[in-house]
Amino acid sequence: MRNYIKHLISIKVVISMIFVSGMGLSVQGQEIEKVFQVRCNEQPVYIAKEKEGFNIINDTWEPIIDVRYDTISLLDDFLLSAISDGKQVLLTCQGTPVSPQDMESVYMYADDELRGLYFIRNTRDKYGVIDYNGKTIIPFEFERIEHLSIHKYLFAIKNNEKYYFDYMGNVLFK
User: Fold this and answer.
1) How many CB atoms lie within 10 A of CB 82?
2) pLDDT tens, 98-133?
3) Which residue among 34, 36, 47, 60 sits deepest, i.e. has the most Cβ atoms within 10 Å of its Cβ?
């Protein structure tokens, strides 16, 4: 697990970029103030701080997403977390959104068996679980979802009924 963020010290020389003294780096007309490298899914990902916000760029300094976010940070080994207009979005390492559009909050467990699973509450106050590809593991229809580590399953409540899921989203019993 090499979660680290470091400020790039050296500037890669590529024909498409021009360094303007006192103004920062300019790539294809976009002024870049800082570039951060993170390890996401064992690959380097470059987060650029531009005048308009944050973007993800490739190793040739070209933007790989069209959206500018207020902030982008590494969530864990598999996903990035971005915020735009106060709304959080989960992104793959390539910048593809994977969280539901109505996501209110996300939480994760520190248990290695649950790496890559994201417990999400939506704006309707319902809970569900997705994996790092955005696949729904447990649908967003439960009032509560918890991890019962002793028994190695997920516990959920919907309409006062109790459900027990394995880590793949299969109902074990209810």
Assistant:
1) 27
2) 999 999 999 998 788 888 899 999 999 999 999 999
3) 47
